[in-house]
Amino acid sequence: MNQDPRLAPPVRRIIPRQAGTVVEPRSEPAPSAAAAVASAAQPAVEPGVQSGAWQDPVDMPAPPRAPTTTHSNVVERMRLESVWLAYGDRWVVRDVSLPVRQGEVLALIGASGSGKTTLLRSLNRLTEITAGAARAGHITLDGEEIDGLEANDLRRRISMVFQQPNPFPMSVFENVAYSLREERAARRRRRRAGLPGRGPRGDQLRASVVEALRRAGLYDEVGDDLDRPALGLSGGQQQRLCIARSLAAGPEVLLLDEPCSALDPISTATIEELIVGLRESVAVVIVTHNLQQAVRVADHVAFMHLGELVEYGPSQQIFEHPRQQRTRDYVSGAFG
Amino acid sequence: MEWLLRAITISVLVVIGLIAAAILIEAWPSFEHNGIRWFFPGGDVDQQLKAMITGPQEPARYNWHFRGWPLIWGTILTSGFAVIFALPLAILAAIFIVEIAPARVRRVVEPAVWLLAGVPSVVYGLVGLLVIVPWVEHDLISKAQKHSVDYVVQLTGENVSVATAILTVMILPIMIALIVRALQTVPRTWTEGSVALGVNRWRTIRRVSLRAARPAIIAAAVLAMGRALGESIMLSMVSGSRGFAANPLDGATFFFEPVRPLAATIIDYAEGISVAPLRHTLYAMGAVLLVSTALFSLAGWAVKQPLKRYGIGT
Amino acid sequence: MEGALNATDSSTLGVSGARKPPATLRRSQRPRERLAGWPIADRVAWAACWVVGVGVSLVTAAIVLLMAVKGIAYLHPALLFEHPSAAVAQSQSGGFLDPIEGTLLLTAVGTAIAAPLGVAIAVWLHEYGRPAGLARATESAIEMTAGGPSVLFALFGLILFARPVLAFLSQTSAGGSVSGRSFLTAGAVSSLLALPLVVGATREALAQLPARLREASQALGKTRARTIRKVLLPSIRPGIAAGVVLGMGRIIGDTAIVIFVLGATLHLTPAGGLPGLSALRGEGTTLTAYVRYNSPAGEGLAPNKAYAAAFVLMLIVVALNFAVVRLGSGSRRKRPFARWRPARAGSAQ
Q1: What CATH number is given to the structural domain containing C117?
Q2: Of A268, A280, C21, C66, which sits most exposed with the smallest number of CB within 10 A?
Q3: Is the domain of C101 the same as that of C152?
Q4: Does C225 touch chain B (CB under 8 A)?
Q5: Is residue A262 very low, low, confident or very high in pLDDT (cuts 50, 70, 90)?
Q6: Same domain, C214 and C285
Q7: C228 and C328 share a domain?
Q8: C65 is in which domain, residue-wise?
Q9: B-contacting residues of C 82-121, CB under 8 Å?
């Protein structure tokens, strides 16, 4: 019954979290920083997943020396292996290999046109709804090829926040409940997969919405009236609402595409704080033009230039001792 | 220049206002003589209208008697059902054009819809009369059905079903056009944001795009209702041209009973418009159409108001 | 550029770009939906959209084909140049020269009235629009006109133009009563059909103009009126033209006004006065009224002629449609239906 991977939704995060539960990564919690590094190098493997799929290709990046910041849980969730992306005949991403880890923030930096956003969009297969876009290479989520998953299940697990805040023209509550209500629509598939048949409703739905708003740090500001129109919020609030909307679906990976580029410095600071707080429960990938922002939030940084991954490493290394001349030029140019 | 433009605008506005005023004034005598019974059932409408022509021609002895229910019922049946059928079809077609059709298919479907919108109503009437009506008359209506009601009315291919079906096709393209325009203006960031949350394309369309297009859908329904109410030529050609109130209690036969809506009646009796009582009665029919169109516009406006709060339909 | 990139040291951590592009790609030339994973209801709805979309096109195709087949079968060139006659036999009832002339004349009059008025109203609404109450009233009046039944306009025209004051527009019978029926009066009433389309198209075109155009002109010291005349109106000409053509389509397609306000006579009946103006003051008919007259619903009883005339009517409609598309493609900047694909190939960085 569960043979077809498209029919079987992701086993974990599709079930909305109860308020207060700590989000666990898929692997056993690693007790120490050393173990964290080890588990990053040796990705956690769920029972039943073929470990053979995890063979490192020859030129995969070596495991990083040490994360800039130490967390209790650093677990590799996604892996990109020689990913190529094209629009029509034009290559916009060339042969990129990267790990994406939960417990830390990965920042993609680089000039405009370096392929950062396209790469980010390919992680949850949004490039598929773009005509002319094509991809080669492997992207895996917990060892499973993302192409083997049902696209909408995948996007539920790997959620995305866009550059421009894009709340729907509904109330704040409905915005956050949007993807939760969707689970009711998918209940038939869920039942077939042996999951509880219903998405949350009533009080449970409300609790999930409130929890998502809390995690996005928005509840204190809008909690008094969740029925207010979302489009009436300020830009920063709208963006946090979008983050809350993404979190409500219980994603395992959160993709942020320059989430602060349209916001003022104060909103930016709030959101950066929020991002750093989220890395414990979800793997966070952020695309940013703003190097200071990368310094502030990122544990690992990937510098892209004209579609190529020039350098990848711990944040400190990239910003203080870049190995590549191009990285040095870019980083120092930005730092004056 | 501003005063010139404003003067033009005001004069056109006055003319448009005059339309309503003139029709209502001209309609008044008919309502005055019949009172509220103008809208009631009672006797054969066609005989009543003919009696106005044949009746005495001195103002004091004019024959005013008129009971309009069969015509009103015909209008309700044809316009109401046409809009009810056309609305979901128009929504699906608009979604198809904007969101679903591959570019090559769309390049055919879109002009086809615009062309359909341009087909004159007399052409619909002709096609209906020469193609659909004979087919319905010979192949769909059974002898027994004809027989069952021939003491009141003759069943032909010109009937309520044919009229409603053609009317549905006629109002479809305008509705599609309005909804298509609204769907096109739904920001891509909304639909993309929804897809990025793992909501499939269809449900994204339903829950975000259609939601945002609701004001246009209402406007489309109102406009289509106006067109359906006012459609005269095609209906006068295919609806049976008989002031008969088709009776749903007749079962399957009901679908083949003739009706004649108000607008079609005005056209059918155009020749007698110089006869005073008939003229006033025809204007009274026009007044009913005018008021109902206005009421539908008003209702559409009222329905749209609450949507503005969440930032759509502004 | 590519050479320089490929020269990068590939041994460094996480560096890419040294290898050749892969030969096989997962291409999505057009976003393909994978419906397999969807709930059944969603798949049914998706299919319903296809059915309706294709169905509407098939209906159009059926009407056009029917008209073409019947039209070509019954249309002889002679029909276009013969006056109609009231004979009972189809072979003797002549052609439809008069209806064609009538259609052209009525459309010309209606458009000539609607176009300037529509543009004036649109410009006033968009560029001035004060007092706001008047603007709102105008907007709703125009909206009502767009949805208004033409038979109401016809009834109104009949009252208005039968006034003795307006007798110069039509004919006056020996008894002194004004008929109110002529190309001038019918054209004036028909212009109400075209008016909302002209206003709508003009407003839309004005709204699409970049604000800098206006600012630049005014910065050069031109007055507002001059800006409108010399800068704005010339640049929205295709938009206005598209609206006018759409309006012509509605005038050509209408029958009710012809029956009530033009008289729907068999021939054009010029009435006195100057040679050019006489036809305008006279009654007449158009193709739509002719089709109705010859259909089984009318008295002409010449369905073949009705088909032939309807075919000519359809040819005009198709031609107008093409004109709108041509005009529209020039002015419409927003590619409709461009969603789900990037604005430019590289809109994502």
Answers
A1: 1.10.3720.10
A2: C21
A3: yes
A4: yes
A5: confident
A6: yes
A7: yes
A8: 41-74
A9: 117, 120-121
Q: Report the gap between the CA of B67 and the closest CA in chain C (Å).
A: 21
Q: Which residues contact A180 (CB under 8 A, 6 or more apart)?
A: A16, A199, A200, A205, A208, A209, A248, A249
Q: Most C CBs within 10 Å: which of A87, A98, A116, as the mutation test of the C interface?
A: A87
Domain final residue pick, C32, C55, C74: C74
Q: H or E segment at B114?
A: helix B103-118
Q: What is the pLDDT of residues C197-243, one digit of tens each?
A: 999 999 989 988 888 887 888 778 777 788 888 888 888 888 899 99
Instruction: Supply the DSSP symbol for C284.
Output: B
CATH superfamily of this structure's domain B2-307: MetI-like (1.10.3720.10)
Which ranges of A109-248 would DSSP assign to H, the alpha helix?
116-123, 151-157, 172-185, 187-192, 202-215, 219-222, 235-248
Q: What pLDDT is stored for residue C348 in this prediction? A: 34
Is C246 in the same domain as C304?
yes
Chains that contact B by 3+ CB pairs under 8 Å?
A: A, C
Q: Mark residue B214 as left, alpha or beta (left: phi above 0; alpha: psi -120 to 50; beta: remaining).
A: alpha
Number of domains in chain C: 2
What crossing angle do the helices spanning B103-118 and C303-331 adopt, rounded to 10°? 130
A83–chain B Cβ distance below 8 A for any pair: no
Question: Cβ of B203 under 8 Å from any chain A Cβ?
Answer: yes
Given an 8 Å threshold on Cβ–Cβ distance, is B196 in contact with A159?
Answer: yes
Q: Looking at the complex, does the CB of residue C8 fall below 8 Å from at least one CB of chain A?
A: yes
- C261 and C306, same domain (yes or no): yes
What pLDDT, on a 0 to 100 scale, did the predictor assign at position A20? 38
Structure tokens at C172: 């006056």
Residue among C30, C35, C44, C49 with most chain B CBs within 10 A, to mutate: C49
Q: Tell me the nearest-neighbour CA distance from A212 into chain C, angstroms.
A: 26
Residue numbers in C near B106 (CB within 8 A): 337
> What pLDDT, on the 0 to 100 scale, is given for residue B313?
52
pLDDT at B312: 65
Q: List the subunits that have 3+ CB pairs under 8 angstroms with A.
A: B, C
Please determine, for residue C3, whether its predicted confidence score (pLDDT) is greater than 70. no
Q: Is residue C3 part of a domain?
A: no
A253-257 and A308-314 beta bridge pairing: unpaired
Q: Do C348 and A84 touch (CB under 8 A)?
A: no
Whether C260 is covered by a domain: the verdict is: yes
Low-confidence ranges of chain B (pLDDT < 70): 240-241, 311-314
Best probe of the B interface among A182, A187, A257, by most B CBs < 10 A, is: A182
Share of chain C above pLDDT 90, in %: 35
Residues of B with Cβ-Cβ distance to A129 under 8 angstroms: 192, 195, 201
CA dist., res. B279 & res. B299, Å (int): 30
- Note the pTM of the prediction, 2 decimals: 0.83
Q: Is the Cβ of C73 closer than 8 Å to some Cβ of chain B?
A: no
Residue type, B93: A
CB C251 within 8 A of CB C107: yes
Q: Answer yes or no: is pLDDT of A56 > 80.
A: no
Q: Which residues of A touch B188 (CB under 8 A)?
A: none
Its ipTM equals 0.89
Q: Is the pLDDT of residue A42 over 50?
A: no
H or E element, residue A79: strand A75-87
pLDDT at A208: 87
Question: Length of chain B in residues, anyone?
Answer: 314
> Does C124 lie in the same domain as C65?
no
pLDDT of residue C226: 80
Residues of B in contact with C224 (CB under 8 A): 1-2
Tell whether C115 and C228 lie within a shared domain. Answer: yes
The mean pLDDT of A136-163, rounded to a whole number, is: 87
State the residue for tokens 């397999």: C36
pLDDT at C300 over 80: no
State residue C86's pLDDT score: 74
Is A312 within 8 Å of C34 when comparing Cβ atoms? no
DSSP state of A141: E
Residue C6, in any domain of the structure: no
Quote the pLDDT of residue B53.
Answer: 87
Instruction: Tell me whether residue C338 is in a domain.
Output: no
Tokens of residue A276, six digits: 């750093």
Q: What is the mean pLDDT of chain C?
A: 80
Shared domain check, C165 and C62:
no
> What is the pLDDT confidence band of residue A200, given thresholds at 50, 70 and 90?
low
